[in-house]
Amino acid sequence: MGAGHAHKLYRHGHSPVHALPPHCKLAAVFCFVLVVVSTPRTAIWAFALYAGLLAAVAVLARVPAGFLLRRLVFEVPFVAFAFLMPFVVPGAHISVLGVPLSVPGLWDAWNVLAKGTLGVTASVLLAATTELRALLLGLQRLRLPPLLVQIASFMIRYGDVISDEMRRMSVARRSRGFEATGVRHWGVLAKTAGALFIRSYERGERVHLAMVSRGYAGSMPVIDEVTASRAQWTAAAALPAAALAVCLLGWAL
Amino acid sequence: MHVPDGFINTPVCAAAGVVAAGAVAVALRRARRELDERTAPLAGLVAAFIFAVQMLNFPVAAGTSGHLLGGALAAILVGPGTGVLCVSVVLLLQGVLFADGGLTALGVNITDMGVVTVVVAYALFRGLVKLLPRKRRSVTVAAFVSALVSVPAAAVAFTAIYAVGGTTSVPLGQVFTAMVGVHVLIGVGEALITAATVSAVLAVRPDLVYGARGLTAPLKLRVNGELVDAPASPAPTPAPAPAHRSVRALWAAGLGAALVLAGLVSFYASASPDGLEKVAADQGIDKNVRDHASADSPLADYGVSGISDPRVSGGLAGVIGVGATVAVGTGVFRVVRRRSAGGDDDRPARSSEAPRETV
């Protein structure tokens, strides 16, 4: 929080992956995840190959494995859900160490776990190699409505400000001896949320007036247009293309 | 409740993506009417607020705590269009940036958590505000009920999406029970926090609560120790026409009857727990067969599970169903009325009049 203009997940670097235009990377990651999701679950080797492809990208982007794994540990809340599946899904059961596990349940757990983890890894790699602003420019380039991109950019720009405001409120509460321990303290916290809303909204009004006084008329000027050469598109397409080949093999075999 | 990649099959993800894109397009147009050219900074700041408030921890009991989802709150505070936009932007950035929710499941997530929550909450809120006496307390009550219903409604929507395109063979009945059960609990917390937050904002800046516009009392001036009506402003408050009033009575009667019917009928329908178990088992076996053949055609099982799913629901689901129906009905009614009115709308007029009263 409050650490300059880079978000927590971004990792500064000068690798070929960092240098790719953001919209190429976004499209590549999206196509890759699409291909992964469409792969039959029984082709276990295909998922190993996908993991290999992502590892290759990580090496190319000089993102250390530890960094990547730490993010994965944080961002995988559905693992618990996947581990429940072998116990709740009906069907043929096998006994592993005396515990009856359902076979279709195991396949389901594998399916969600493998595809979900690959998707998260791809997203983490994208976020680690792309700056926030570039990501927004890429989204705009991919024909996301400009108003939506503007909203997203304001959210990102002021996200830390608002979070810090909330943290200051929390410091103020605690310095007056307040400690939230149960439901009966919700009133105070809800008043905090209400005050935070009013402050955010009023800040929005001030920001708008400041923008109008600087000539804002409904659309932001595009200063740095991102463009991609054919070579860059080809480089970005390497990942989903390789994945597609694996996927087709998975269906064929 | 962020859906990861690979949990819902690709065709259904694509369909949900189309639904989400359509909803966001409608919301963009609506948000421009709600906020005119201030849309970008204000909606952006409200999105940042929702993002921040989701990090505010509400302790429940020894060690556990929950946080606000914010859909109903956004709908009530800034209106349905802006609310859908804000929640969608939050979900988009969570998906792209924080790997929270799959990229291919983005459409599912936006449809489920953004659109369903906000639309159900707002429709219910407006309906209740119209029905209840025009007091500040009724706004709080309406906020409570709409937040309470909106969270399980999203769970029901998720179960419906899962019924059409789930890739796992967890029985539908179990998914429904678990999702709705857990989310009714979450909904109670969400409702308490939302109502308290809305009433806190209402106490300080009532003009900022979008859902409570038109509830402002006429301005009174204290002259020589007694309250006198302020001189009529150039834009007098639009007095509700008699026809309007009868519409409100109709609303009351219709909604009341629907809720009673739904509650009673579903109560009797779900009075035999064996039937529920049986349907769930049938569904599970059904799913297994389909998944092993891996014939991923959404239309094939659309007819089977889509129809028998609502029968599984208890009394609550009936009430939620009424809420969803009211939402859809209100949406259609609004669209039709807007078409017939020829595009001119009353929102900007009202919004320009609201600050005048507070000055």
TrEMBL record, chain A:
<dbReference type="InterPro" id="IPR003339">
    <property type="entry name" value="ABC/ECF_trnsptr_transmembrane"/>
</dbReference>
<feature type="transmembrane region" description="Helical">
    <location>
        <begin position="43"/>
        <end position="61"/>
    </location>
</feature>
<feature type="transmembrane region" description="Helical">
    <location>
        <begin position="73"/>
        <end position="96"/>
    </location>
</feature>
<keyword id="KW-1003">Cell membrane</keyword>
<dbReference type="InterPro" id="IPR012809">
    <property type="entry name" value="ECF_CbiQ"/>
</dbReference>
<dbReference type="Pfam" id="PF02361">
    <property type="entry name" value="CbiQ"/>
</dbReference>
<feature type="transmembrane region" description="Helical">
    <location>
        <begin position="116"/>
        <end position="136"/>
    </location>
</feature>
<keyword id="KW-0472">Membrane</keyword>
<feature type="transmembrane region" description="Helical">
    <location>
        <begin position="20"/>
        <end position="37"/>
    </location>
</feature>
<protein>
    <submittedName>
        <fullName>Cobalt ECF transporter T component CbiQ</fullName>
    </submittedName>
</protein>
<keyword id="KW-1133">Transmembrane helix</keyword>
<dbReference type="InterPro" id="IPR051611">
    <property type="entry name" value="ECF_transporter_component"/>
</dbReference>
<keyword id="KW-0812">Transmembrane</keyword>
Automatic annotation (TrEMBL), chain B:
<keyword id="KW-1133">Transmembrane helix</keyword>
<feature type="transmembrane region" description="Helical">
    <location>
        <begin position="312"/>
        <end position="333"/>
    </location>
</feature>
<feature type="transmembrane region" description="Helical">
    <location>
        <begin position="72"/>
        <end position="98"/>
    </location>
</feature>
<dbReference type="Pfam" id="PF13190">
    <property type="entry name" value="PDGLE"/>
</dbReference>
<feature type="compositionally biased region" description="Basic and acidic residues">
    <location>
        <begin position="341"/>
        <end position="359"/>
    </location>
</feature>
<keyword id="KW-0812">Transmembrane</keyword>
<dbReference type="Pfam" id="PF01891">
    <property type="entry name" value="CbiM"/>
</dbReference>
<keyword id="KW-1003">Cell membrane</keyword>
<feature type="transmembrane region" description="Helical">
    <location>
        <begin position="176"/>
        <end position="204"/>
    </location>
</feature>
<feature type="transmembrane region" description="Helical">
    <location>
        <begin position="141"/>
        <end position="164"/>
    </location>
</feature>
<keyword id="KW-0813">Transport</keyword>
<feature type="transmembrane region" description="Helical">
    <location>
        <begin position="110"/>
        <end position="129"/>
    </location>
</feature>
<keyword id="KW-0472">Membrane</keyword>
<dbReference type="InterPro" id="IPR025937">
    <property type="entry name" value="PDGLE_dom"/>
</dbReference>
<feature type="transmembrane region" description="Helical">
    <location>
        <begin position="40"/>
        <end position="60"/>
    </location>
</feature>
<feature type="transmembrane region" description="Helical">
    <location>
        <begin position="249"/>
        <end position="269"/>
    </location>
</feature>
<dbReference type="InterPro" id="IPR002751">
    <property type="entry name" value="CbiM/NikMN"/>
</dbReference>
<feature type="domain" description="PDGLE">
    <location>
        <begin position="248"/>
        <end position="338"/>
    </location>
</feature>
<feature type="transmembrane region" description="Helical">
    <location>
        <begin position="7"/>
        <end position="28"/>
    </location>
</feature>
<protein>
    <submittedName>
        <fullName>Energy-coupling factor ABC transporter permease</fullName>
    </submittedName>
</protein>
<feature type="region of interest" description="Disordered">
    <location>
        <begin position="338"/>
        <end position="359"/>
    </location>
</feature>
